[in-house]
Amino acid sequence: CDWIKVRSEEEYFQSHPIWSRLATEQRGTKALCDKLTQLIVKRAMDRGPYIKYHLQQKRKDIEQKLASLGTDLPKMESEKRKLLVKLISRFTQTLRQIAIGDYRDPLPQNQVIFRLKYAANTTLQGLQQELKQNLPDFHGDVYAQKLSKDMVYTMRGRELPGFGSTRLLLSTVANELDTWKMSIEDCVQHLLTTYADVSSSLSQTLMAAYPYLLRHIQETLTTNIQASDEVLQRRVEEMFLHTIESASTDEELIASINSIRFQRFDQALQEVLAVAKEQNGPGQSTKDELKQHVTEMLGYAYIQQHAMGYGPSLQLEEARAVLSSYWRLCEKKLYEDMSAAIDVVLLQRCSEKIEQDLNSQLQLWMADPLLLAEVFAEDPTVAVERQRYGQLKSDVEAALKSLDRLIPFCPVLAPGSS
Q1: What's the predicted TM-score (pTM) here?
Q2: Exposure b/e, 175-210, CB count within 10 A at least 16 = b
Q3: What is the model's pLDDT at position 20?
């Protein structure tokens, strides 16, 4: 009966006052189907690449969500034990790796928030810059007045290059290191918070489907991070005491002091030689006479140079030189000691202690079937979510297959690209 339908369509178009004006090839159902097909294909070719990009991104998001929800829980005890070992091993191994800058695991490779060592190094570099910026302005008028009032007066009549007098000078500025101590304590708290956030995010990502296991890991993290906090607080106190003591006997500081001592000796020697030449006239003194004069006068002239003859202005410059070296050494030692403490106490030992504690608990879970069952007691809402996202993934994959059939070898274009 198809020819009857076609004949009826022709009669309709021929008798219609408007549609009769259409060309014969534009009339009827077949012409309409062809036209609609052309429009659909054109639209699909225009929007298909963008639709494919959207579908692929949707599938990627769904897969990440499914990964966080975990797979269906095993039924057999042997399978539960294997899964438990795998989960604990993945978490502890990844935590130790990201603490030393090893990002071979897919999580730190794809997400910057899990790069713990990088975050710690960035914070320590910020501390180093802050310490450098908080160096006193030794050449400013305000600090010059402080030196003249608090230090040079105290040093009057003493030889600056001497060990005892140098310690006296440095002891007057030790309290100014408190500004650095506050910066370091803030840095420690920031690093502890960073470690807690990264390790907590890692556990949530890997254990989201196992609330009991996640809760126990979170408690283990909190306990060990608090213990590391106490250790680091003691290390900071010891660090400042050690730095203040050791910097005053450092070779670089001693070299700075010796340069002042040598300069004073040269000045004293030149003064003695000048007096000797004035007394006997140029070229009139014999070698023995010159030697005797130097022997008799050099000690007195040296004392004049360092204590009396040149007054507080010279001592102020020398105090600035010694203090500049001292502060540079303190800044260097504090940064190096702080970096080492964070690396050893927090990034290494804390991660190792977390692994030891979890492995000890793992043995208890493995030995008790009731505890093992409790570990894998799944939240019913997680199972529902897993099923829902699994169906969404199937729908998206079916849509991608349909698009590939409609537009073979369809390219992928992100929105905004051409």
Answers
A1: 0.62
A2: eebeebeebbeebbeebbebbbebbbebbebbbbbb
A3: 76
